[in-house]
Amino acid sequence: MEGYNLAIIGKSGVGKSSLLNYLFNKELAVTGSGKPVTKQGFHIFSDSIAGKKVNIYDSWGMEPGKTDIWLKDFNDFLKDKKSLNIKEWIHTVVFCLSAEGKRIEDFEKKIFAQIKAEHLNPIIVITKADLDKDNSFYEAVKREFMTDQIIEICSVKKQFGLGFNKKVSERYGNDNLIKAIIDNGSKSFKNRFILIKNQFVKQRANEGVSIMMPKVEIIIDANKESSNLLGNIKDSTVKSILEKTHKLVQSYDKETATRIEKLLQEANLFYSNHFLFVMGDISQKRFKMDNEDKSSFLLLPPLLSMGGVLGSIGIITLFSALLGPLGLLISIFINKGISKENLLDKIEISINEHYNIIPKSV
Amino acid sequence: MFSEKELNEKFSKEYAKLEKEIDKPNILIIGGTGVGKSSLINKIFGKEVSKVSNVKPETRGINTYTHKDVVLLDTEGFELGSDKNTIFEEKIIAEIEKRKKGDEKNQIHLIWHLISASSERVTDYDVNLFNKLESFGLPAAVVFTKSDIANQDSMNNMVKRLYPHMDFDSAFSNNEIPPFFVCSTEDDEMLSPLNLVNWSISKLPDALKYAFTASQILNCEAKFDQAKSIINQHTMGNVVVGFSPIPFSDAPILIASQIGMLTRIIRLYNLAEINMGSFMSTTGAGLVISNLGKSAVGSLLKFIPVIGTAIGGAINAAVAGTITFAMGTAMNVLMRKITIDYLNGDMKRVQSDISNFSEMFKNQFNEEFKKKNNK
């Protein structure tokens, strides 16, 4: 899916669909009143904002009595938005609070915290902001959510007042929101990238043993002819098996690093292609990583260098770890060698140690 | 004859007794967070002088407190969050059912179901609750709050959720009161909760009308009318007392009965700025009242010699009734005047009315007495 992905969430009736239409300047999402309008789920709307393709997920609003299903839907929605494919990500989350009710609910704070924990760096939009005349709601939101990323918006031109006094609200605030999305994009990306990279590194580490051990067994079997009289593998052979195992781990880790690097490159490309909305009064600077950004990315611990990818336990540590206990073994079993099962066990423990994983059986 | 001090004490005592014995209606107030519950309560009953929360914690989810002479069962607003809502719903329904089984005093007498008109939504939750409340057969009113910032189209759609066959525009512009109330706490006459107040008074059993009328601050005429019926009750009471001619020297008995009436009238107006318990001594009205009976009868005897000669200086039933009526009406008229000034924010006038109260009362009494007597 092409385009910059935005998700709009909030309580029923805060004006999520109206905000979407205001951002696209088109009546795409069905808006209305009376009952909750947007059906259950997260609905994608694609259009352009100032010539750039943008996909907006309009969500069904949270409502009393339905928060459990909402939360489940929300978690399902987030689940497949953190793959290594940056195009699938949610790039910016817009969290709506309405100045109409002027209330902040614990549940909203909980969801906001969850979004933050997902490193999604949400922007808060105060909808129907014309009703927050004394700015008291703005201040309350700032205090309760501990954020400065708050944009006040009025999405619809509407007449208000059922009595003698009629008022008309004018639309305003979408240029500020677009500006905020642009500012927010790079911050969000950095945070999100670290999360997804760490998640990927962890996944690779977890899978390490099960992927590599069958290969280790093949290596051992290929060297069977060098067994001694007891049927044990000779010390000299063990050494070469360990060297081959080391290379195996090394290439596995290199693969991890390569894929992360590719992700970073894709991200660079993606952001430079999608990030800029050319707006009349909005800065024309293209999104690209400047030197500072670049260095901060390169400094991320396990990113581009092999040692880095593996974190504190590097390749060299692995080698000595492998040789350490085995070195000791070799001296004990100098004449006896080591059985295949025993060697497999030792190697498995060492690989797990390399990835800092404590085997479940222990 | 009572001394002024004695009389003031009697008033204070009577007032304390009334305060204790007054039958208070129970009003259940339902509404989500942000519907503006407390603003509406303040608009109808005035800002709370002292909000006394019920100490009993067993009804969590419902805060019960006395506001002036009404008991408000203020539901904790239903909000987002997993199990909170079912608990909330069970709490309300359970509370109503529990009270239904109990005695009359503890019944829910009125339900106000508040929905924010400007939220543009009536959630399924509200619809369910609405249907459930209907089935109880209790006087329940849907109150759309914040209508000053609501939108006409939205309102129409919201109303359709609860009353599918109703058209908001025609229902609202009609002179008849629709089955719901459209309110705001802004100063917009069209959106005043006055209709809700009147509806509530009409739905309450007679015994509870007094407390509600006394507590609300939106309808001064309702207070005036309520006072009239109190005066009538007491006048009739005096007629009974007067059946056997009361010797002139027994006028204080009459006054003792009138104290009850006057106290009830004063409390009806329930002005927050004035300490009702000591109203009589503050205004010096006590002294005036203690002399009124006597002077009124005295002047009466001069004008209508027939009575004087026929009964020989005793107050007969009709005269007793007239005195009581004039006292009550004088008090009612003056209290209304002060209340109107108070509600208009004319505190200067309120202060001057209070400091000149005895004089005004005396004049008003004489006027009412003459009027009644001439009939």
Task: Write up this protein.
With 362 residues, chain A is α/β, with parallel strands linked by helices. Chain A has helices at residues 16-24, 67-79, 106-117, 136-145, 174-222, 235-274, 291-298, 306-309, 315-332, 340-354; strands at residues 4-10, 42-49, 52-59, 92-98, 123-127, 150-152, 158-160, 167-169. In chain A, strands 2-3-1-4-5-6 form a six-stranded mixed beta sheet, sandwiched between helices. In chain A, strands 7-8 form a two-stranded antiparallel ribbon. In chain A, a hairpin with a 6-residue loop joins strand 7 (158-160) and strand 8. Chain A is elongated. Chain B is α/β, with parallel strands linked by helices and 375 residues long. In chain B, helix 9 packs antiparallel against helix 14 (317-343) and helix 12 packs parallel to helix 16 (357-374). Chain B is elongated and about 65 Å long. The chains are: A alpha/beta (362), B alpha/beta (375). Chains A and B meet through helix 2, helix 3 and strand 7 of A and helix 3, helix 4 and helix 5 of B.
